Amino acid sequence: MTLETMKQNYEKFEQAVDLLQKDLDVSYLDAIIETGDNLIEGGQLLIENGKPSPDIRSKLMELYQQLTNQTMPTDEMRQIIQFALLKANQIDKIQANHQMTPDMIGFLIEYVMEKFLSKDKEYKLLDISVGTGNLLSSVFNKLKLHGYQPTKLYGIDNDDTLLAVASMSARLQKISAEFIHQDAIDNLVIPKVDIVVSDLPVGYYPVDKKVVNFETHSEEGHSYVHHLLIEQSLQQLVPGGYAFFVVPRGLFETKETQKLLSVIRKQAYFQGMLDLPDEFFSNKNYGKALLFLQKHGGGAKQVQQVLIGTFPSLKAEDEFTNFLGRINSWADKNLD
């Protein structure tokens, strides 16, 4: 499908969301969810207390018919929802920890992920802080496109509105996914998985008594939630399973570093860490990196040379392409 067709489809989706949001007087995010749900039902409208009003209904039905009367590639649907969510960030003033992971970060994670995976195996994936599900579905779609076999997705979040977006998006993309509304620090109610991929929230976990059994808990004051989630993720992996995290660049530069490193050494192999380009972030002081871990067991082993580096700017095309080539060379030398 051409870029122009995708632009036209997004504009129709956006028009439908705008109409609903104004007529129902709801948040932009809620209007996105209801628009997606209506499309999942074949363009059927949910009418409550006379809303949407009759004149808006006819406009919506026409837009829905135009969107449902075509076969849209799954990743195009994901991108349409992504663009709508970017608008929601501006209108609803969504807090930073709740905003979706940019597509380019998903591309880079999946690029490195492929170096570790086999096309002959099936993989269950978990995002332990799934939010709107953009990172999880983006990685899923790219793995499928490149011949890998992700078979089931799981997403966990304690925000029911974001989970509603993730669920709606997955259903529109016809992805087999299960989303669980719970605190990811609690005992998880899903099976063990082969891969955890997550853009971890950064900050402090507020309930100290709930994390006393975590090795990464702080002896004084609140514990870092991203440390706790790394520990929880490693517990949820099968032997030899992989964890791909988006983390603060200074992850190993705090007073709690030794506890986190101890947990990683006990449970997993530290396979790599790559700083993301500064241009991905509005403030370079809040820059992030990709962290790659592999749980002990299942034939896993420590790579001879840990993958360490910094992605060049996307504007430096030759440097960026050469860096991807260096990742390929590293994989050829260090991975079976």
UniProtKB/TrEMBL annotation:
GO molecular function: DNA binding; N-methyltransferase activity
Xref: InterPro entries: DNA_methylase_A-5 (IPR003356), DNA_Protect_Modify (IPR052933), S-AdoMet-dep_Ade-MeTrfase_prd (IPR016843), SAM-dependent_MTases_sf (IPR029063), YtxK-like_N (IPR048375)
Residue span, DNA methylase adenine-specific domain: 101-299
Superkingdom of source: Bacteria
A family per Pfam: N6_Mtase
Keywords per UniProt: Methyltransferase, Transferase
Gene3D superfamilies: 1.10.150.470, Vaccinia Virus protein VP39 (3.40.50.150)
GO biological process: methylation
Species annotation: Liquorilactobacillus capillatus DSM 19910
Identification of the protein by name: Adenine-specific DNA methylase
Domain YtxK-like N-terminal helical: 10-88
Keyword Isomerase: no
CDD domains: AdoMet_MTases (cd02440)
